[in-house]
Write a structure and sequence with these properties.
The protein is about 30% helix and about 30% strand. It is α/β, with parallel strands linked by helices. It has 3 domains: about 5-45 and about 160-225 and about 320-384, FAD/NAD(P)-binding domain (3-Layer(bba) Sandwich), CATH 3.50.50.60; about 95-150, no CATH class; about 230-320, D-Amino Acid Oxidase, subunit A, domain 2 (D-Amino Acid Oxidase, Chain A, domain 2, 2-Layer Sandwich), CATH 3.30.9. The radius of gyration is 21 Å and the shape is globular. Bound molecules: glycine (GLY).
Length: about 375
């Protein structure tokens, strides 16, 4: 069997795996990324909202802190990545407006605002009229809103392309094949075998294969909990120059109990997302999914019906059992994971890359990531 060797092997070349590889190579380690199509993961579909505050769920304060830490790193991460790759990332520091349409929605959104205030977060409450002053295309039925000036956006597709280029610049080997099997010798992960039968040996193996991470053959039972696919359908519209500025910031709402968001890019794209469906590995774009997104987005911004519909797509978010990421060393020596980012993969890319590369280079997990150890489920299982 042909063999090759690196200090670190990263299985999975979505933006999480590539960012880990890039940061690790910058620390002087030799890195190979194993993926049939590097740069093409769930981030190809994602809207790229960097919105830890407006997406805050009750009971997820540790995740909020991790998301805010990543958001705070994004401007520098994007600038460095653009410099290294010579490619744009679409990073846009534009803020986010979460709006409410009915009286019940308004009440719920105001509770979120009060929660923000208790946590000392920077958000402001606006009347419907103040919301429309910020975003004149909003429907007259908008009753109030929450403005978060620090919740921004980036283009996941561009980040993927830039990371491929930056990794190549940094000497990362991009090995275009599928990981067939994890190699475990004497109770330690020591590499992987590709679907072409090549063996890649490594001192440390990082598993960053999104919602397929737990499916890798050779992974001993109990090392990684199941990471389930959560389908998200997304639309891409084009904003003709005569309509700009159509929206100046990301706009979101909960309509009929479902999240809908509109993310206007600087390049004239308007991303509308997203459904949330637990249907296994299905990525079919359905008439119902497109209809619901257009109907809900139209309630917020009626003018979208004038825009050309450029693309429909569906991606798979990797959801862990508690919907928080799995970051750091596992119970199997030599195996580190960076997966389970669920709705926050694009947002958490910079902090994941920093945390995992720190561990790979020093053997130390930064305090920020202690709550997200992949071994937390083993502890829960043992208590049952
Ligand atoms: N973060 C938005 C989504 O997953 O739909």
């Amino acid at each position: 069997m042909p063999r090759t060797r690196s200090d670190v092997l990263v299985i999975g070349g979505g933006i999480i795996g590539l960012a880990v590889a890039w940061r690790t190579a910058q620390r002087g380690l030799s890195v190979t990324v194993l993926d049939p199509d590097p740069g093409h993961g769930a981030a190809q579909v994602a809207a790229g909202m960097l919105a830890p505050v407006t997406e805050l769920q009750y009971g997820e304060v540790p995740l909020l802190r991790l998301g805010m830490a990543s958001n705070a790193r994004y401007a520098d991460f994007a600038a460095e990545l653009e410099q290294a790759s010579g490619l744009p990332t679409g990073y846009r520091a534009c803020g986010t407006l979460a709006v409410a349409l009915g009286a019940d929605d308004r009440g719920e959104l105001h509770e979120l605002y009060e929660f923000h205030q208790r946590l000392g977060l920077d958000s402001s409450w606006l009347t419907g009229r103040e919301c429309r002053r910020l975003e004149p295309m909003l429907a007259p039925s908008v009753r109030g809103g929450l403005h978060v000036a620090e919740d921004h956006q980036v283009d996941g597709r561009r980040v993927g392309a830039a990371l491929v280029a930056a990794c190549s610049q940094a000497g990362v080997t991009l090995w275009q094949a599928r990981a067939d099997r994890l190699t475990v010798e004497q109770g330690k992960a020591v590499g992987a075998v590709t679907d072409a039968g090549e063996a890649i040996d490594a001192d440390q193996v990082v598993l960053a294969a999104g919602c397929r991470s737990h499916q890798l053959d050779g992974l001993p039972e109990g090392v990684l909990p199941p990471v389930r696919p959560v389908k998200g359908q997304v639309l891409r519209l084009r904003i003709p120059a005569r309509y700009t500025p159509f929206l100046s910031r990301s706009v979101r709402a909960v309509v009929r109990g479902r999240d809908v968001y509109l993310v206007p890019r600087e390049n004239g794209e308007l991303v509308i997302g997203a459904t949330s469906e637990e249907l296994g590995y299905d990525t079919t774009v359905t008439a119902g999914g497109v209809y619901e997104l257009l109907r809900d987005a139209h309630e917020l911004v009626p003018g979208i019906t004038e825009l050309p519909l450029a693309e429909t797509s569906a991606g798979l978010r990797p959801g862990s059992p508690d919907n928080a990421p799995l970051l750091g060393p596992t119970a199997l020596p030599g195996l580190i994971v960076a997966t389970g980012h669920y709705r926050d993969g694009v947002l958490l890319t910079p902090v994941t890359a920093d945390v995992v590369s720190e561990y790979l280079a020093t053997g130390h997990v930064p305090d920020l990531a202690a709550h997200f150890s992949p071994t937390r489920f083993a502890v829960q299982d043992a208590r049952r």
